[in-house]
Amino acid sequence: MPTLDERLGLAERTMTALVADAELPPKIGVHPRPEGSFAHAMPAHLRGSDAGGGGDLLGMKWVAGFGTNNDVGLPAINAVVVINDAATGLPIAILDGGPITALRTAAVSGVAIRHFAPVVTGRAPRAALIGAGVQGHSHLAVVGRVLPGVSLTLFDRHPDRAAALAVAARETEGIGEVALAADARSAVADADVVVTAASFGPVRQVMTGDWLAPDALIVPVDYATYLAAEVARDAALFVVDDRGQFLANRDAGLFDGYPDPTATLGEAILAGTGRPDTGRVVVTHLGVGLADVVFGAAIVRQAEALGLGTILRS
């Protein structure tokens, strides 16, 4: 896996590449039982700077999410990433997509926080993290890096998982104070940055504007599980990772009441869009297959250099 700083760089490259240099459809999904489960196919192609295609990337992630797995001790998300040779289409690597999904998602959150977190002076920044699953754990290092000295408040509906996340947070570089909240509302009440990474269900759109500080940055990575549409509608800036994917999911009923985005994260970065002087900023990222391909290709390069992995030959 690339280092933390490399992951942040790869995530920013992915977001800006989505503006003009990539081809990917909205997630192709099916929704098996139990309620709230999904399986998505996420193909992506990145055009490199070499006009002959030498720097292109091609691949796909096949990912399944079953929130009920937490109750039986299984990962809620599992995935496989396939990297193809961009010149021939032949598959060249198969990777465990679980760690890639966790760390690329957190890295995109880090990019959003770096660009749009409110500037605070005279005290440590305050952040809240809702959800103590895989995504909660993967976000710790990123939050510590982009908000050094942060005072972090945690909440999960399973107290034992929240307690375990608190232990990990206290051992994470860059994180200062760590506190556990009795409920989600108290966790986010005075936070400068709020990251929601809860499993889908049982709540939906419960985090309304009266929960949040007036200039907070909210980064939902759990679709509309927590954040209410009114917060996005009233935000000074509403940004998504990929416009087409967001709109397709809104049409499918997963973002009822949400407005059209102001911009994509990549568009905002390339345009030099700054944080508004006042008001909330919402950066919703659903996860794009391009991030998995970019991260997967970097992992393959590192594995080849280190002689890691299993070689499969016909």
Which tags fit this structure?
alpha/beta, 8-stranded parallel beta sheet, 6-stranded antiparallel beta sheet, 34% helix, 314 residues, globular
Report on this structure.
This protein has helices spanning 4-20, 97-116, 134-146, 159-170, 184-188, 229-234, 243-251, 265-271, 289-306; strands at residues 22-23, 28-30, 38-46, 57-65, 77-84, 91-96, 126-130, 150-155, 175-180, 193-196, 217-220, 237-240, 263-264, 281-284. The protein is of the alpha/beta class. The strands form two sheets. The protein has an eight-stranded parallel beta sheet. Strands 1, 2, 3, 4, 5 and 6 form a six-stranded antiparallel beta sheet that branches.
The percent range for helix content is: 25-40%
Described by its quaternary structure, the protein is single chain
Shape: globular
- Per DSSP E runs of 2 or more residues, the count of β-strands stands at 14
Q: How big a fraction of the residues is strand?
A: 15-25%
Biggest sheet, in brief?
A: 8 strands, parallel
Uncertain ranges: none
Number of DSSP helical runs:
9
The rounded Rg comes to 19 Å
Strand order, sheet with most strands: 9-8-7-10-11-14-12-13
Q: Compute the separation of the termini in Å.
A: 27 Å
What order do the helices and strands follow?
HEEEEEEHEHEHEHEEHEHEHEH
Structural class: alpha/beta
Calculate the mean pLDDT score and round it: 95
